[in-house]
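Two proteins were folded this term; both appear here.
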Amino acid sequence: MQCLICDSLLSDNGRDYVIDETMFRIGQSFRYRECEQCGSINLAEKISDDTKLYPDNYYSFSVDPAETFNGFLPRLLASAMAKSSLKGNRLFLGFMFRYAPMREVRTLASILLSISAAYSGSVSKRILDVGTGSGVLPFVLSLAKRSYTLGIDPFLATEKKAKHFELKQASIQDIHETFNLILFNHSLEHMHDIEQSLAHAKSLLEPGGTIIVRIPTVSSQAWDTYRENWFQLDAPRHTCIPSRKGLTQLASSCGLQIMNNYDDSTDTQFWLSEAVAKGLSTMDATTGYTAYLTNTHSRQKKRSMKREARKNNSEHRGDQTVLTLRTT
């Protein structure tokens, strides 16, 4: 078996981890193995076809973007955020990422921030969102009316086509059009052919085009602290959680250069991992632990977690990182 990130043989001497499925608590555990060469953590067993990995209530399919942004104010805010992103304006998005009262808005702001960080002076006319879920990002970007975004997902239930965006049930290997910007927003770690998928994405780039990868990483304080209870392991949906060394090797092997790299982890790495350690489901809102506003930590503890998350990001020790890639 090969490491999905650096393609090295996963030696029997590599350290194994037994990791519970914690999103829905289906009562199964899965074996992962650490790559001795790059330190990435790989799923080391075949998943039964009976294991439903992405049920209808999976979080990325549970939000209807048209309904969420139906009101005047939500749509106005989403449109302003989309325009800021496509113009390379990070100030407004940075404010929303840090201070928006709703976690969903902060998450959206972090995605749009990655697009603005890759801004190179011209609007990305054609954008591909790989692993789009219910299509929140293509819908929001369409509100700016400055680009066309295709959102693809192999588990998409309903396809849709509009003037400025389209949703299609497909994998990256099914796409042969070209794009100015391709996004893997926490989707690359779900794939069983990570290197091939990234290489194929490179082949779809227009000259001067950009690939953005947002992904969890084991080169982080959260992994060192929580290990099997780190919520971003998300067994068995995550086939491989890369190290930073592995990501550098992956980009190079695909003929890509890392133009920019920063961490955008949040305090979720602490309080949600602690919920996992207590045996809770990360999708069960009734527990009162898995929602930021209702978990039982004190306000002082929550503020401390936020400060620690910002510190980790500044030291490249956050539990998720953002890579801006261009052709070498």
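Next, the second protein.
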Amino acid sequence: MDDLETLAEQVGAALKSRGFMLASAESCTGGWVGEAVTAIAGSSHWYDRGFITYTNESKQEMLGVSVATLAEHGAVSEQTVHEMVAGALKHSHADVALAISGIAGPGGATLEKPVGTVCMAWALRSGAGRVQTLHFDGDRGAVRRQAVSAALRGVLDLLSDDPMLA
């Protein structure tokens, strides 16, 4: 498992070298990405803000996720995190954003979405982005920790995949 402090430092260095700011939109991780990055001294130079949107209403009010998306696809869906990441960019000064929504357990699972299902999205203000659904093993804490790690790695991947930013 990746060390979150090391990952957060790497994300900070990658963002700072580009003059970029990061915003996070979190549901199942409850602000853990924000905690991980703000544990790094100097993170105010590259972390703009975080949105903790645990309920559907908060996703709608703070990030502009549509009622129709939530009704049709649910909070844990690639469609929802796509709208969450767009809302995080719209409601921040960030150049890069990430979004996380998942089922950390022990309850809340369905046959289609078992415990450990986590949807994530990453986007650049310039338009590049990606969405992914991952499946993590373990208890609630393990699922959440793995989600934070994957979200931070996703920022690094997004920045390194864009030839204009490398």
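The longest strand covers residues 117-124. DSSP finds six helices and five strands in the chain. These notes refer to the second protein only.
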